[in-house]
Design goal:
The structure holds 2 protein chains of 2 kinds. Chain A is an all-alpha fold. Chain A is about 80% helix and about 0% strand. Chain A has 2 domains: about 5-75, no CATH class; about 90-295, MetI-like (MetI-like fold, Orthogonal Bundle). Chain B folds into 2 domains: about 5-95 and about 175-275, Rossmann fold (3-Layer(aba) Sandwich); about 110-175, no CATH class. Chain B is globular, with a radius of gyration of 18 Å. Classes of the chains: A mainly alpha, B alpha/beta. Chain A: Keywords: Cell membrane, Membrane, Transmembrane, Transmembrane helix, Transport.
Chain lengths: ~300, ~270
């Protein structure tokens, strides 16, 4: 990855880095005076540039949609105005809150169950032996294949929707909790033993904190899965939520409203992820610090 | 700088061991590791008595089973034969009155707790409950190892030597009678190591501990201990049990220049090498 200066220094041109990140890490670590990049390359590498291109695309879309009016698409300003009107009240707000509620309850139930079961499976042989066969058979099953069965048993209301979301989130968290709790360093476990910690104290004070970085990896991928499934389950059950709203709008060909719904889901996902990262940075600050100073 | 942390007058009382009551006994202990294909005997026929207040170093060639012995003595590994007793009681798991300091300090300190938090962990899981408030006990043990200024820092922000001092402070905060140390100083640089040795001697003198210290470094063994136990190279028990009786307090420069130091060093090196 490292560019050898004696080979690459032919003309004044800066050789294009193969992978920009590898090069930037390299140069920030080497003690010698790092060469300052030309401003154009620095600008191209900044995050603001990406958002600028995105904004330009919106402007292009707006101009095209205004110049060629059609019921098949909407202008950016129409979408923005509609979104603002609807998010303050009415069906969009109701549907968003319904979806968010289903999602958060299902996700929360899954998080608690998966962490408890994952840690127990990693630390209690009997639990592992008993739960491994059914969980391994259930895991590869697509969640969409389970929905009809759950509708049969639980109906199409909250119980079913929350179960489906929980099921979708469960395995992401379970696998990470299991592997995290199973790989506590031997010296760490010896420390717990020599300090006379009971089994419960060992779990609470050693195993679970040590597994926390791994558990958070699972929680994060489960968050994305929960949002997707909570929208989809609304489409299938067809009674409430953003999924249901989108289906109605699609059937009545309300293009602007459809885009408004999609934008709402995207923003919901963005906000949830941002909130997640905020919590993660606080809970795992020690982990990020330790891995940063480690070489 | 290094000598300032050396044991004070209290340390000299310690060296008058021998008459002290036996705290730790290993009675014809053996350890055989069984794999699917074969059995490997790491240690057999080992008997050892360690008195309360002693500072004993275990040395021997690599593969002589000294780390195995320490795991047996500290109850982390059950012996396949023989018996280990602490204060007369046969052990079944880590004895309540013992704590360990491991070589791998980075995996032993809790990275999600500050240095003070780690010491507080030792107080919470103590053999004898601490007298006085927790905060002042934490400060006491941090000062004892010279880490008072680093209380609010995280282990991974510190050098290896400072992390190992934090591990020692945490072990001492539990007020153990016995301290087991497994190659505890081999992971740090030479200067930090000398400092750690003096911190340990100081703490040993202050806290009235019994220390069993495994090392592959003969100089370290002679410098720290009153008694150096050499293990047989093929794991057949104790090869030699040398009482050095060097004067205390010890100093990194003065002690290492004593004729007795050099004499014991030569004697032990020959025992280990031959």
């Amino acid at each position: 990855m490292t560019t050898n200066p004696t080979v690459t220094r032919t003309t004044g041109a800066v050789p294009l880095p193969a992978t920009p990140d590898a090069i930037s890490n390299e140069s920030s670590r080497t003690a010698g005076a790092p060469k300052r990049r030309p401003w154009i390359l620095r600008a191209l590498r900044s995050r603001a540039f990406g958002w600028l291109v995105f904004a330009a695309a919106l402007v292009a879309w707006q101009r095209y949609a205004t110049a060629n009016p059609s019921p098949r698409y909407a202008t950016v300003t129409d979408v923005a105005v509609q979104w603002w009107d609807q998010i303050l009240g009415g069906p969009l707000l109701t549907a968003t809150l319904q979806t968010l509620r289903t999602m958060l309850i299902g996700y929360g139930v899954a998080a608690v169950l998966a962490v408890v079961i994952g840690v127990l499976m990693a630390r209690v042989r009997l639990v592992y032996v008993l739960l491994e066969p059914p969980l391994e058979l259930l895991r590869p099953m697509p969640i969409s294949a389970v929905i009809p069965l759950l509708i049969l048993y639980l109906g199409i209301d909250d119980a079913m929707k929350i179960s489906v979301v929980a099921l979708a989130a469960f395995f992401h968290i379970l696998l990470n909790a299991y592997s995290g709790a199973g790989s506590t360093h031997r010296t760490m476990m010896d420390t717990a033993r020599t300090f006379g910690l009971t089994w419960r104290q060992t779990m609470a004070e050693i195993v679970i904190p040590a597994a926390a970085p791994s558990i958070f990896v699972g929680l994060r991928s489960a968050l994305a899965a929960s949002l997707v499934i909570s929208v989809v389950v609304g489409m299938i059950a067809g009674n409430d939520g953003l999924g249901h709203l989108l289906m109605i709008q699609q059937q009545s060909f309300q293009v602007t409203d459809l885009i408004v719904g999609a934008v709402t889901i995207a923003m919901l996902g963005y906000a949830l992820n941002a909130a997640f990262l905020f919590v993660e940075r606080r809970v795992l600050h020690w982990h990020f610090g330790a891995t940063r100073t480690h070489d | 700088m290094a000598t300032s942390a050396a044991p004070t007058a209290a340390g000299t009382e310690h060296s008058a061991t021998g008459s002290a009551a036996t705290l730790l006994t290993a009675d014809d202990v053996a350890m055989t590791y069984r794999t699917r294909r074969r059995e490997v005997t790491a240690l057999r026929g080992l008997s050892l008595d360690i008195g309360a207040g002693e500072f004993v170093a275990l040395v021997g060639r690599s593969g002589c089973g000294k780390s195995t012995l320490l795991r047996l003595l500290s109850g982390l590994l059950p012996a396949t034969a023989g018996q280990i007793r602490v204060a007369g009681q046969p052990i079944d798991g880590p004895p309540r009155q013992a704590r360990c300091v491991f070589q791998d300090y980075a995996q032993s300190l809790l990275p999600w707790k500050t240095v003070a938090g780690n010491v507080r962990f030792g107080l919470r899981h103590a053999y004898e409950p601490a007298e006085g408030g927790h905060d002042e006990r934490v400060a006491h043990y941090l000062d004892l190892v010279g880490l008072g200024h680093a209380a609010d820092r995280y282990p991974w922000e510190l050098s290896g030597g400072m992390q190992q001092r934090a591990a020692i402070a945490r072990a001492l905060a539990a007020r153990p009678q016995l301290l087991f140390m497994d190659e505890a100083f081999s992971g740090v640089d030479a200067l930090s190591r000398a400092k750690l040795q003096d911190v340990l001697l100081h703490a040993w003198a202050e806290e009235g501990l019994t220390v069993v210290f495994v090392t592959h470094d003969i100089d370290e063994a002679v410098y720290l201990a009153d008694r150096v136990v050499v293990l047989h190279p093929e794991g057949r028990g104790v090869l030699a049990d040398v009482r050095t009786g060097l004067p205390r307090p010890r100093g990194q420069v003065t002690t290492r220049e004593l004729p007795e130091f050099l004499h014991h060093r030569r004697e032990l090196l020959q025992l280990v090498l031959d």
